[in-house]
TrEMBL record:
Sequence intervals crossing the membrane: 6-26
GO molecular function: oxidoreductase activity
Protein name: Uncharacterized protein
The organism's place on the tree of life at top rank: Eukaryota
The species this protein was found in: Apodospora peruviana
Amino acid sequence: MANYALLAVGVGVIGILTFAVPMLLAEVFPWQLIRRQHFGRPTMTTKSYKGRTVLITGANGAYGSRAAKLFAHRDVETLVLVDVRDCATVKEEIEKELRESGKTVMPNIVIWQADIMTFAGCQEIGKKAREQLKALDHVLLTAGILAFDCRQSPEGWETTIQVNFLSTALVALLLLPLLKPSPGNPNPPVLTFVTSFGIYPAAPSMWSLPKDGGSYLKSLNNTENGMKQAQQYGMKQAQQYGISKGLLLYFTRELAKRVSVSGDMRKVTINSADPGSAWTPLTQPNGQMLIPRLIMNFSSRDPQFGAIALVNGASASEDAHGKILHDFDTASYPPFMERKTGRQAQKRVWEEARKEFEAKVPEVKAVYRLLTTTRD
């Protein structure tokens, strides 16, 4: 009997190691994907952006500023830098680099300062784009925050969800009708969101829909002081960041689906790009916390490679519509998003965000009407 018991235990252990552990890792920590990015060295896929217009949010950040320089060195005509901070220094750096490289023609660099912690700041971006831009070929939405304390935005949302999800989604909707290629651009315009593997460890918090029919978004809107617990390890903050990015990815996939069948907007490519991890001012506080530091050391690389991955995403062909782009490939959506409950959650995210936007931003109603107009 003892031998049979040992055999049963052995079979159980083998089963756990063979099936349960890989399944768990696929759900919450896709280490193979992360390591591929860690060692990935992407190169630019588009050689020239001559005659084109590019808009970047978060243009003062580690990824946004590097992406701006990549576009500028490849002859972009108009470069719109959007950030809560003044991007004058980024503009000066770009022009200095171009002069030193022998360039004689400088891009038209436009600076818009806007605080997307509020919907009014998002509206200001849409207003300026309508008034100042004749074409819009590439939009790269890199703006984001990682909050290390519990704060509420002026709109009543936890700040990470406000900036990384709601405001980013609203900016995208307001810019969507303005996306049209410049005369020299043979490809459809591209709208690119930034995603992150941080979605995976936050996935368990997103698996279940409220059983009482309450708001899915509000159930994830952690504005309580409880967010400060476990601050020593940074787990609550990392989880909230991952939730915000998961909500954005749900929104992005639903937006791509609706653009595909829209009679007016089906010529726009919507995708997500994952730059991987890097030590930047955004992630630097992770160095003071054990688990985030270990994960960053396991996954991080030079932020220049992440910027290249993002620019390639924003330059992708229409075949990339609705997909997640990594360095050299497309990636699958997280497993929980592919399940029935994930599809239901996606619809909830879309409808609840729509309700919030239409209540506070009247001009977005026209965009939603365009997205419900099906092709002939």
